[in-house]
Amino acid sequence: MNTQLEDIVSLAKRRGFIFQGSEVYGGLAGTWDYGPLGVTLKRNIMNLWWRTFVESRDDMYGVDAAILMNPKVWQASGHVDTFTDPLVECSECKGRFRADKIDTSKCPTCGKAGTFGEPRQFNMMFKTNVGSVEDENSVAYLRPETAQGIFTNYKNIVDTLYPDLPFGVAQVGKAFRNEISPRDFIFRSREFEQMEIEYFVHPASWQESFDSLLTDIHAFLENLGLPKDKIHELDVPESDRAHYSKRTIDIEFDFPIGREELLGLAYRTDFDLSNIQRVSGKNMEYTVKGTNEKFIPHVIEPSFGVERMVMAVLSSAYREDEVNGEKRIYLALPEHLAPVKYAVSPLLKNKPELVAKAREVYECLKKKHRAVMWDDNGNIGKRYRRQDEIGTPYCVVIDFDSFEDDTVTVRNRDTTQQTRTSITDLLS
Ligand code: GAP
């Protein structure tokens, strides 16, 4: 179906997935807060990523580096000089825009023509000061990517865990970019999360690792339930690649806002480790065990944006259909991502014996699946609709027949079919 962004934004707010950041004070552009269901969905995606790329592999190590880093990191990495977007300002209404995202012949806000001058390069890093003295020597930056926290720990990992090449180091965490025009819900935010891997390889075998990580990425996206026909590879031409990359494949996705970048896979060569060696004076060479062969490893970097994964998952799962002549909205989330796996209700909430029996079933299911919700608000129809909208795969209802034959009604979110199931089977 042709899902609109407004449908996703409205459902996300209505059902407690995602709210505008600082909404009560009028919001803060480019920031978003995850509500109870959103945080669970996001964590389910992040945990799946960590299990897939770190825990179930022998060649990956995790780190969790500090967000505030020595400013030399950002000088060595090139971010101080080149992490910029072209900015134009309208001389009439003072609106500021990314020059590469608009038609600069006419201001998109006030409509006046010829009000933009030459673009100037705007650095997207957030600056702050560390310590009590605010001067040039105390300047620090909020990290604009998690990658540098991995590169700066490369030597620590080699010296403490002695990994064989190729090996990867993974990190999940917040990144901050002072985007000129944050837009499209969580798609382009000023504070967001990344899941990144720096995969260190022998320079001669970068292509092999690049290809195999690309295959792993596609398998992960499939596991998120993203339809294959909405995923596209873009071999980024040299003129559009980041300053550090010799090859980049952007994985694009057909979002409700159009086809846009979901994640990137880049061949960063030895750009980062060589820069660290040059600026820090510390040797970043890797010695192949049992030999005298030494070199600075090259790097393949899969870089996933968590917000874009959440947006892709929500927009792929969004469905509208008709049940008993009424429009129904539901999220066909894969079971392993759904924030709530089962909702349990007594048919009537004013019948203590039904409530007690339903509570028993609820406690047992909760022990087994954890993500189980007690839901006795409104009538059964309303409960189903609510659970459909948050993507709960199964609703379990305890009624008077449950006392006769120890069965319950299990209602399937996608088909809306209801089946009688024995409590023993449900809990086994
Ligand atoms: N370390 C490489 C790097 O950061 P990037 O292409 O700038 O590369 C990687 O960012 C991913 O991070 C993007 O593919 C996207 O998923 C996500 N991302 C980047 N900027 C973002 C923003 N302003 N809001 C949300 N996600 C963003």
- With helices defined by DSSP (H or I, 4 residues minimum), what is the helix count? 13
Low-confidence stretches: none
Number of strands: 24
Q: Please state the CA-atom Rg, rounded to the nearest Å.
A: 25 Å
Biggest β-sheet description: 7 strands, mixed
Spatial strand sequence of the major β-sheet: 3-10-11-17-14-13-12
Distance from N terminus to C terminus (CA atoms, Å) equals 36 Å
Secondary structure: helix percent: 25-40%
Determine the mean pLDDT: 96
**Oligomer designation:** single chain
* Structural class by helix and strand composition: alpha+beta
- β content, as a range? 25-35%
The ligands bound in this entry are: glycyl-adenosine-5'-phosphate
What general form does the structure show?
Answer: globular
Explain this structure to me?
With 428 residues, the protein is of the alpha+beta class. 31% of the residues lie in helices and 29% in strands. The protein has 13 helices and 24 strands. The chain has helices at residues 5-14, 36-55, 72-76, 79-82, 147-151, 154-161, 206-223, 271-280, 306-317, 352-369, 380-390, 401-405, 423-427, and strands at 18-20, 32-34, 60-62, 68-69, 84-89, 96-98, 120-123, 127-129, 139-142, 167-176, 191-201, 231-235, 247-255, 258-269, 286-287, 294-295, 298-305, 318-323, 326-331, 342-346, 372-374, 394-398, 407-412, 418-422. It has a 7-stranded mixed β-sheet. Helix 2 (36-55) crosses helix 9. It is globular. The model has no long low-confidence stretch (mean pLDDT 96). The structure holds glycyl-adenosine-5'-phosphate (GAP). Glycyl-adenosine-5'-phosphate (GAP) is lined by residues 145, 147, 177, 179, 188-189, 192, 194, 196, 261, 263-264, 301, 303, 305, 307-308.
